[in-house]
TrEMBL record:
<feature type="binding site">
    <location>
        <position position="208"/>
    </location>
    <ligand>
        <name>Zn(2+)</name>
    </ligand>
</feature>
<dbReference type="GO" id="GO:0008270">
    <property type="term" value="F:zinc ion binding"/>
</dbReference>
<dbReference type="GO" id="GO:0005524">
    <property type="term" value="F:ATP binding"/>
</dbReference>
<keyword id="KW-0067">ATP-binding</keyword>
<dbReference type="InterPro" id="IPR014729">
    <property type="entry name" value="Rossmann-like_a/b/a_fold"/>
</dbReference>
<protein>
    <recommendedName>
        <fullName>7-cyano-7-deazaguanine synthase</fullName>
        <ecNumber>6.3.4.20</ecNumber>
    </recommendedName>
</protein>
<dbReference type="GO" id="GO:0008616">
    <property type="term" value="P:tRNA queuosine(34) biosynthetic process"/>
</dbReference>
<dbReference type="InterPro" id="IPR018317">
    <property type="entry name" value="QueC"/>
</dbReference>
<dbReference type="GO" id="GO:0016879">
    <property type="term" value="F:ligase activity, forming carbon-nitrogen bonds"/>
</dbReference>
<keyword id="KW-0862">Zinc</keyword>
<feature type="binding site">
    <location>
        <position position="192"/>
    </location>
    <ligand>
        <name>Zn(2+)</name>
    </ligand>
</feature>
<comment type="pathway">
    <text>Purine metabolism; 7-cyano-7-deazaguanine biosynthesis.</text>
</comment>
<keyword id="KW-0479">Metal-binding</keyword>
<comment type="similarity">
    <text>Belongs to the QueC family.</text>
</comment>
<comment type="function">
    <text>Catalyzes the ATP-dependent conversion of 7-carboxy-7-deazaguanine (CDG) to 7-cyano-7-deazaguanine (preQ(0)).</text>
</comment>
<feature type="binding site">
    <location>
        <position position="205"/>
    </location>
    <ligand>
        <name>Zn(2+)</name>
    </ligand>
</feature>
<feature type="binding site">
    <location>
        <position position="202"/>
    </location>
    <ligand>
        <name>Zn(2+)</name>
    </ligand>
</feature>
Length: 227
């Protein structure tokens, strides 16, 4: 497929959610342009997962873009701050929140989309089984989409951008089930925030807990190797 009008820019972190989103975009008939941000994150092993997923799904282009957010810090994923292993407080934004991450990453997707002639951005944000991040909420996505169509040449000329969030209201169990329905090997994806030196998932961070619970609730085997 070479028709740019049917290309989708997929923000591909290498996690389960981004893998399923990419699979759904392909199922919907889009040619995939995958964008992965190497922000020098603690769990950079997810970049290897993103590469595997992009290749498996036949992405027509996969860009791994370096953006060293450790220069900003402010998060357990980008600074010398311990990743919590005892769960997160209710109604609290956890220290694994990376300041403005989805705003930054979606802005990069938007620039790539306009440059490639694509008008569809796909991202795996989730407002149910998530860790309290403000940039995973529906109102954020609506606001970003409105901004995208005010801030770009394409948008002001009436060639509007759409931000697709098919996982927004799914539970982690439903996402795991969707991966199985799409025939995707969940073992290609990576979720852990604090991997061990031998590249095993810690099993205790919030992301590991959510993943393991999702597979258990779905009655599916979690292929993750936990420490």
């Amino acid at each position: 497929m070479t028709d740019n009008s049917k290309s989708a820019i997929v923000l591909l972190s290498g996690g389960l959610d981004s893998m399923v989103v990419a699979g759904l975009a392909r199922e919907a008939g889009y040619a995939l342009v995958a964008l992965t941000i190497d922000y020098n994150q603690r769990h950079r092993v997810e970049l290897e997962s993103a590469t595997r997923i992009a290749a498996h799904l036949g992405a027509i282009e996969h860009i791994i873009l370096p953006l060293d957010l450790t220069r900003f810090g402010g998060s357990a994923l980008t600074a010398d701050i311990d990743v919590p292993k005892d769960g997160v407080e209710d109604d609290a934004i956890p220290v694994t929140y990376v300041p403005a991450r989805n705003t930054i990453f979606l802005s990069l997707c938007l620039g790539l989309a306009e440059a490639r002639g694509a008008r569809d951005l796909w991202i795996g944000v989730n407002a149910l089984d998530y860790s309290g991040y403000p940039d995973c909420r529906p109102e954020f996505i609506r606001s970003f989409e409105a901004m995208a169509n005010l801030a770009t040449k394409a948008g002001v000329e009436g060639d509007a951008f759409t931000v697709h969030t098919p996982l927004l209201h799914m539970s982690k169990a439903q996402i795991a089930t969707e991966a199985a329905r799409l025939g995707l090997d969940a073992g290609m994806s990576w979720s852990c925030y604090d991997p061990t030196p031998d590249h095993k998932a810690c099993g205790k961070c919030d992301s590991c807990r959510l993943r393991a619970k999702g597979f258990a609730d779905a009655g599916l085997v979690d292929p993750t190797v936990y420490a």
